Amino acid sequence: MRVLSVAFPGMPVGTGLAGGAEQILSILDDALVEAGHESVVVASKGSRVAGDLVQAENHGLAIRNALRDRPIDLIHFHGLDFYQYVPKPGIPMLATLHLPVSFYPPGVFTEMQAGNVALNCVSRSQADSLPCGLKVPVIPNGIPVARYQPGVAGDYLLWLGRICPEKGTHIALEVARQLNAPLIVAGPVHEYPEHQEYFARTVEPLLDRARIYAGPVDFEQKRTLLAQARCLLIPSLVAETSSLVAMEALSSGTPVIALRAGALPEIVDHGKTGYVVDSPNQMASAIDRVDGISRDLCREKALSRFDSKRMVRDYLELYGRIITRHLGMACAPQENL
Known about the structure:
By secondary structure, this protein is an alpha/beta fold. 37% of the residues lie in helices and 16% in strands. The chain has two domains: 2-142 and 307-328, Glycogen Phosphorylase B (Rossmann fold, 3-Layer(aba) Sandwich); 146-305, Rossmann fold, CATH 3.40.50.2000. It has helices at 20-34, 59-69, 108-114, 124-128, 169-179, 193-203, 219-228, 244-251, 264-267, 280-289, 295-305, 308-328; strands spanning 2-6, 38-43, 52-55, 74-77, 93-97, 117-121, 157-160, 183-186, 211-215, 231-234, 256-259, 274-277. The strands form two sheets. It has a six-stranded parallel sheet, sandwiched between helices. The protein has a six-stranded parallel sheet with strand order 9-8-7-10-11-12, with helices on both faces. The two termini are 21 Å apart. Residues 330-337 have low confidence and may be disordered.
């Protein structure tokens, strides 16, 4: 099978700057190559992939060139703006909705499927928010759990991710200051003006000797931070469709305390692997109780629920169903150029 995966423009795949969608694409790319399939990835400059990388500034042109140069069995889109560079019908296509439904134009949910682009969601709560009772497959995200190992818990709280307003970095800092607890903030501040302004005006003034910014971190640094944190805080202000960082924390044996946003209650077992709360004050109260959470149970739950092998298997099965359906419809020869 030859799969052409298409990343979000401007966000490198396979690097420390990658977001959740890019991480999922990387996992699938690795798995396709390991299983003996052919993986081609259209992504921005600086990306690192296991298959063949097509570096692109213009995704539409890169896709057309890739289809011209090699036989492709299926295109898998991962970007928010995928609908802008979908080629003409004639080849099976899948778009994974990695972000909240409200982030996409309404026409995506009707026009894309009518135009031969299948859709899938990454959590039940996300699928339940689709308009007009639309039903699509749900494939929950997964991570390579074995890459994370438990450590000895320290006394610091951890916030880890992309620093931007919707991720609520400032809430974690305010809660930590309220409790006079040490907090490490780690993750990139991307060069979007809104993100830069948020960090300068809202996050940076809350930093001090006990609440520090560690900057963007590589994988080994991230793994150590997760394994030794007292707990991970996720004060998201948008409906999260998933949370890879929550899965990474639990895989490290570290409890998670999260605001009730989107799919987070699907990942954190309240009272068992952490707490799902409804306000910053409740988050502060949960931190006082978090030492009673079993770190061994967090790890056990991650091993049984979040390993990416299940996700990969589900995507390969979905690829097969989409390709088979396409062939069964006796579509005309490809006219993608």
